[in-house]
Design goal:
By secondary structure, this protein is an alpha+beta fold. The chain has four helices and eight strands, in the order αββββααββββα. Strands 1, 2, 3, 4, 5, 6, 7 and 8 form an eight-stranded antiparallel β-sheet that branches.
């Protein structure tokens, strides 16, 4: 989530600009909009082992995201994965929409995708059980919303907990995903809400 000019083109442009400067006053160039910033490893809820941050990558992740696949556009999107040495991982995805109205619509679609995620998973995976919960709004910029999805496979005795949030600042939308083995009682919900607020506030 770039084209570059050749050195020859850059030098030629500089020469032309230099000649023009001797004859006409030049207007200051407008600065390009700053790219939204990602969380650092240390801004995720504390884990038993330290978090490691991967590189920021352009576009959607190759392995997709369970709940939001098919909702987030590849254009204008970047993502970053995080992990620990234990069974805990996380991801932040940031999308810059063409307008604030389109960003608002995307955020609404993502909230719906999270709210309906468990039902869709159950349709795809017979035998899956779970509980989906909405944990309220985080008051930051245009708002952020936190969900959890607690799943289990009784036949094999495995349980997984995922925390998810969607937040928006203007025309920029960010999605956070956090997951580990276990259930909601062992998940850092309060810390995840804080991380969500930090993520949205840090975008710009």
């Amino acid at each position: 989530m770039r084209t570059t000019r050749t050195i020859r083109t850059a030098l030629l442009a500089a020469a032309v600009a230099g000649l023009a400067a001797t004859a006409l006053p030049t207007a200051p160039a407008s600065a390009a909009p700053a790219a939204p910033r990602f969380l650092s490893a240390g801004q995720w809820p504390a884990s038993l082992t330290p978090w490691t941050a991967g590189p920021v990558r352009k576009g959607l992740p190759e392995d997709g995201s369970v709940c939001t696949a098919g909702t987030i556009p590849a254009k204008g999107t970047r993502h970053r994965d995080f992990r620990t040495e234990l069974d805990t991982g996380a991801r932040q995805t940031i999308t810059v929409a063409p307008t604030a109205a389109k960003a608002k619509a995307l955020a609404a679609e993502l909230r719906t995708a999270l709210a309906t995620c468990l039902d869709r998973l159950k349709e795809q995976e017979p035998g899956l059980e779970g509980v989906s919960r909405y944990h309220g709004r985080v008051n930051v910029e245009e708002g952020a919303y936190v969900h959890s999805i607690d799943t289990s496979y009784p036949e094999v005795g495995s349980t997984d907990i995922g925390l998810h949030s969607v937040g928006r600042d203007g025309r920029t939308v960010t999605v956070l995903e956090w997951g580990q083995l276990g259930d909601l009682d062992g998940a850092p919900l309060k810390g995840f809400r804080k991380t969500t607020g930090t993520a949205v506030a840090k975008l710009y």
